[in-house]
């Protein structure tokens, strides 16, 4: 199987490429990535010499480039490329609309033109909006995005659905819950909390910290995506959940306990604007139709993830020394009075 992976130098895309090369001997992968602040070729250092893998630097918004790539014959395109961080979308939404919405449209047109037999749009549970303490989002729940990030992803999803309906494009949408695991950029809550805790710095918790997320290990997500790539049905949407809901404050405390650090490192900071209270997915469709369910229990996966960040200090200290510092200061202000 020959596939184009877009956004393959990011967190989930790099884990997916590694998974495909490890499990499918006949697989060929072209990785198209713009290398934004979140894209990092170090994430794929172990496969860069694999003859089945090729990297192309460029944007999914570049019509000519995407067209030129798809002139070669591919069996599928998996679209991971995105601006992915909610807080950055609140600070400036422009790049989110460009990549997540317009970039998706560029890909859809190119897939149509070159008759790519399968397109998978990697989307998110955030397009459904926020839940109260009970209930779950199903694939047919209305889209009700609250952040600019979620709105730009929802717009991308709607375009995919429109191309399926209008042109019969063989596309599938997946919507997963919050991922965690190795190679996640340390602006997201889990790697931010882990790396700050290792460094003895404050863990900035938004508001009361009682917001709930459903956690999915990235390896489980990649396995589900590989299955959907092979056996999913065109025109369908599949929720991919981790079946594990946790309040943010419990995640922060668990990380501190794992590292032997005190709860006093948790600092309640001003809440995120428009902060969604709870996400939770009904993923019975994926279980029923394709027989998939997550394997990695959250506490096991989190312990391994903490270990990975302890073993890869150079990877994340390099990231945190760059553009990140400016972003961090702008988002949280000075938290240096709390340290240990
Ligand atoms: P990430 O931010 O770690 O990586 C995104 C990658 O896309 C980076 O390598 C970046 O360089 C690349 N990119 C950005 N703009 C591009 C463009 N115009 N052209 C080509 N490449 C571009 O994101 P992630 O966490 O790996 O998320 C991957 C996908 O999964 C996204 O579509 C996201 O919406 C979705 N998703 C993520 C989560 C999560 O918890 N991280 C959950 C559900 C869905
Ligand atoms: P995040 O990893 O940004 O994912 P998302 O917003 O896509 O769910 O955040 C996960 C949860 O953690 C979310 O409820 C926001 C919260 N959070 C904090 O409390 N502090 C932080 O510094 C960050 C980045 C997130």
From TrEMBL:
Q: Where is the NAD(P)-binding domain?
A: 5-305
Q: What is this protein called?
A: dTDP-glucose 4,6-dehydratase
Cofactors required: NAD(+)
Q: Tell me which InterPro entries the record gives.
A: dTDP_Gluc_deHydtase, NAD(P)-bd_dom, NAD(P)-bd_dom_sf
Q: Which CDD domains match?
A: dTDP_GD_SDR_e
Which Gene Ontology BP annotations are present?
nucleotide-sugar metabolic process
Which EC main class describes this enzyme? lyase
Please name the gene that encodes this protein. rfbB
Which Gene3D superfamilies does the UniProt entry name for this protein? NAD(P)-binding Rossmann-like Domain (3.40.50.720), UDP-galactose 4-epimerase, domain 1 (3.90.25.10)
Its lineage reads: Bacteria, Candidatus Methylomirabilota, Candidatus Methylomirabilia, Candidatus Methylomirabilales, Candidatus Methylomirabilaceae
Task: Say which family it is in.
Answer: Belongs to the NAD(P)-dependent epimerase/dehydratase family. dTDP-glucose dehydratase subfamily.
Q: Does the keyword Cell cycle apply?
A: no
Reaction catalysed by this enzyme: dTDP-alpha-D-glucose = dTDP-4-dehydro-6-deoxy-alpha-D-glucose + H2O
Say which species the protein is native to: Candidatus Methylomirabilis limnetica
Q: Which NCBIfam families match?
A: dTDP_gluc_dehyt
This entry's Enzyme Commission designation comes to 4.2.1.46
Query: Does this entry carry the keyword Lyase?
Result: yes
Q: Name one GO molecular function term.
A: dTDP-glucose 4,6-dehydratase activity
Which keywords does UniProt give here?
Lyase, NAD
């Amino acid at each position: 199987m020959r596939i184009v992976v877009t956004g393959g130098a990011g967190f989930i895309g790099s884990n997916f490429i590694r998974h495909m090369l490890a499990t499918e001997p006949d697989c060929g992968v072209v990785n198209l990535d713009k290398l934004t602040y979140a894209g990092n070729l170090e994430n794929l250092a172990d496969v860069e010499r694999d003859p089945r893998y090729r990297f192309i630097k460029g944007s999914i918004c570049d019509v000519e480039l995407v067209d030129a790539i798809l002139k070669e014959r591919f069996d599928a395109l998996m679209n991971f490329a995105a601006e992915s961080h909610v807080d950055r979308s609140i600070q400036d939404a422009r790049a989110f609309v460009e990549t997540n919405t317009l970039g998706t449209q560029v890909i859809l047109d190119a897939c149509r033109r070159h008759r790519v037999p399968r397109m998978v749009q990697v989307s998110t549970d955030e397009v459904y909006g926020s839940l109260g303490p009970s209930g779950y989002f199903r694939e047919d729940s209305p889209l009700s995005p609250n952040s600019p990030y979620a709105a730009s992803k929802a717009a991308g999803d709607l375009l995919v659905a429109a191309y399926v309906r209008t042109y019969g494009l063989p596309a599938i949408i997946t919507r997963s819950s919050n991922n965690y695991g190795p190679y996640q950029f340390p602006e997201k809550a889990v790697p931010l909390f882990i790396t700050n805790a290792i460094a003895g710095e404050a863990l900035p918790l938004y508001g009361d910290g009682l917001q709930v997320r459903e956690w999915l290990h990235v390896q489980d997500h990649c396995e589900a995506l590989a299955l959907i790539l092979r056996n999913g049905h065109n025109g369908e949407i599949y929720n991919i959940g981790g079946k594990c809901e946790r309040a943010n404050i419990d995640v922060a405390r668990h990380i501190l306990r794992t590292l032997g650090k005190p709860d006093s490192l948790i600092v309640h900071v001003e809440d995120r604007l428009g902060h969604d209270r709870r996400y939770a997915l009904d993923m019975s469709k994926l279980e029923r139709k394709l027989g998939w369910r997550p394997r990695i229990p959250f506490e096991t996966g989190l312990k391994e993830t903490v270990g990975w960040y302890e073993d890869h200090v150079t990877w994340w200290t390099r990231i945190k020394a760059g553009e990140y510092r400016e972003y961090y200061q702008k988002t949280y202000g000075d938290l240096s009075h709390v340290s240990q």
